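Example protein
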Amino acid sequence: MGSFAFIVHPIEVADVARKFPVAKYLPQRLVEAALKLVPPFKLSEITGVRSEHGTASGWFISCPLTPSMMLRLPEDVVMKKIIHAAKIAQDLGAKIVGLGAFTAVVGDAGITVSRSVDIAVTTGNAYTVATAIEGTIKAAGLIGIDMEEAEVLVLGATGSIGRVLALILAYRGYKLTLAARNVYRLEKVAQRITKETGVVPRVTRDVKQAVRRADVILCVSSAVDVLVEPEDLKPGALVCDVARPRNVSVEVKHKRKDVLVIEGGIVKVPGDVEFNFDFGFPKGHSYACMAETMILALEEKYENWSLGRDLSVAQVSGIAELARKHGFELAGFRSFEKPVTREEIEMVNRNALVNDSYR
């Protein structure tokens, strides 16, 4: 039987109440002060992960810091907590540990963590990329977007996910724009894409302008602030928001009934899985980054997979192949933590045809 663990953390202070209900009655600054003092801990046990080729069980380990706290606190303080969480996973018997959300972003994207423990480490980024692309292409077909003709924007293209995602999209021949804050790093990514694929992507640091022009937007920025507002999107646009915290404002859901926003990287886990912790998904569903850790455990492939900031196309295709082998599959679309219904998709299609008030 395979064994794994996955490190999670609250995205917002409000998430702390999922484990400690009293937190909902306390001021944010008080909750954050308490989180600084709380050491990592075992959050829950995960059972029932089963495919035709194996079984696996594991644990969620909590690293009690929000993304904004990870950015404010000294990096060495944050890294010590993440390493502590990984060592708890090791002591529990996990043979591979996954770094979730911002624990995969801080520092050197898991390399220091891997050097500090005696088990394999992965960020889950490879399977996140694979499922984001698969979901985006499927959703585009449902709302009538021709990916061959669409203007495709990668928001956060200089990150480890953004770079390889853009490279794969370029291999498919799509019209690409890359956006991020650091123009020098953007140019480097664009040069690599052109060298490897022959595609010459646009580059820009003007996120608002790029979003307004795009038909399809893949959001993978590690920014803690919202980057896409309701007035930024053209009618009929498709947004795949992979980022946590979200890059897309929740106001888009309320004000723009002519665009489709989907959450990237959500999959159905094979078997009768019990996470024993409610992170807002239907039973048996998880983020792709979590699923990558489970896939490697089922395969008993205990090696560092998605680690560091130079994720490769081979890693993405390799984990996607293992996912198919073990029966992991893209889940139905979700938007702002709710399932996307057929009626909603039809509404987007209708409104996109007649609504030009945001052009």
